[in-house]
Amino acid sequence: MNRIAILGSTGSIGTNCLDVIRSQTHEMTVTGLTAHGRWQRLAEQSRIFQPRRVVITDESLADSVDPSAFNEHAVLEFGEEAIPRLASDPETDVVVSAIVGAAGLRGTWAAVAAGKRVALANKETLVVAGPLIRELASRTGAMLIPVDSEHSAIFQALRCGRPSEVRRIVLTASGGPFRGWTQQQLESVTPEAALAHPTWRMGPKITVDSATMMNKALEIIEAKWLFDLDDDQIEIVLHPQSIIHSFVEFIDGSVIAQMSPPDMKLPIQYALTYPDRVEGISPKMDWNQSLNLEIMPPDMDAFPAIRLGFEVARQGGSCGAVLNAANEVAVERFLSQDLSFRDIPRACRAVLEAHQFDPNPSLERLLTFDNWARKETQRWRS
User: Fold this and answer.
1) DSSP-H helix ranges across the chain
2) What is the Cα–Cα distance from 45 to 127, expressed in whole angstroms?
3) DSSP track, 105-120
4) Alpha carbons 118 and 115: distance in angstroms, whole number
5) Can you give the pLDDT at residue 1?
6) Which structural domains are found in the chain, ordered by start?
7) Phi, psi of 368 (to 5 degrees)
8) Is residue 101 pLDDT above 90, yes or no?
9) What is the average per-residue pLDDT within 153-180?
10) pLDDT tens digits for 34-93?
11) CA end-to-end span of the chain
């Protein structure tokens, strides 16, 4: 039986993961759940799934949370320092890393250090510390299985050939709500418009990343480290229907794609059951209906975040930590109407160009860069 801990169980990935587990109770059980502030939802989850450990990372809630709302057998802990303890619990087999942003790095690191299977939904872990995570996993025997639909698609398609036979991978993007917009049109985008994604239902930060296409920039960097690729082996295309989740082109010209309706339960389930496939609850393709699938190149002038992603993947070192931190703060400022939509990639580039590049930073140094970039982006003005 897979004994599963979910870091970030009240978010979109976490709740979808629990739906998968509910459908596979004969094979899966929950050992731990975490949330930052939505403790009532976390308490409800604990009563349903009966984990042994529950963590609320917002310590300021310690005096206001009702412990009796949680399942009676759970150990309730507060504070971020409890996350590594839960992630490395010897009675947990699989850790789902679903905490959004750089905050998810701490738990992922602990799970990898403990040699766990990590279902990785937190792309920032590899963006910030890709080489260090890969080296740690090679020493501990930890397995990283992607949960992002695009990287899960690549992970599945790569099983059709050897690494030496891969010419390139192609990550697909829906294009978000502003596909086809001009640079001038994008100057007036509001937070409400950016949060209205046409295909996926996600948290606000990830939804804005999809609108700016910064999510693709981060996925480019993640793919480089996850699949051990050269920079010129990664490409991006727009695919509005979100049916083709990404594809791999091999040296003989064969292209293997993974296709399914846009629903996160499928890649989550695959990460939990790999290398097996089992019956699941995600929607299936209806091949009796007409279907048009479009593929087109992205406009990197209108969406300069994509170009940033390729540049950071090529440079490596401290650049990923700086880009990720700058983007997180810029998105927060946009949502509070303190920056314009187009200012998000502008701020990220300015902070990247201002930082003192380190080609081989330690984890401690990366965290220093993260903190510096957040402060720089907070005071940046266009």
Assistant:
1) 12-23, 39-49, 82-87, 105-113, 124-140, 149-157, 183-186, 191-194, 204-212, 214-227, 265-273, 305-315, 319-335, 343-354, 363-379
2) 30
3) HHHHHHHHHTT-EEEE
4) 9
5) 64
6) 2-146 (3.40.50.720), 152-285+292-315 (no CATH)
7) -65, -45
8) no
9) 96
10) 999 999 999 999 999 999 999 999 999 999 999 999 999 999 999 999 999 999 999 999
11) 54
Sheet holding 75-78, edge to edge: 75-78, 53-56, 28-35, 2-7, 94-97, 117-120, 143-146
Amino acid residing at 28: M
Over 90: is that where the pLDDT of 198 sits? no
What CA–CA distance (Å, rounded) separates 327 from 314?
18
| Percent of residues, the chain, with pLDDT higher than 90 | 93
List, in sequence order, the alpha helices (H) in 228-304.
Answer: 265-273
C-alpha distances out from residue 202 to 73, 207, 301, Å: 31, 6, 26
15 has pLDDT over 80 = yes
**DSSP 8-state secondary structure symbol assigned to residue 296:** B
Residue-by-residue DSSP string for 26-68 = TTEEEEEEEESS-HHHHHHHHHHH--SEEEE--GGGTTT--GG
Are the beta carbons of 176 and 125 closer than 8 angstroms? Answer: no
Nearest Cα to Cα of residue 205 among 96, 340, 100: 100
3-state class (DSSP) for residue 1:
coil
Going from the C-alpha of 312 to that of each of 161, 234, 309, 359, the distances in angstroms are 28, 13, 5, 12
Model's pTM, two decimal places? Answer: 0.93
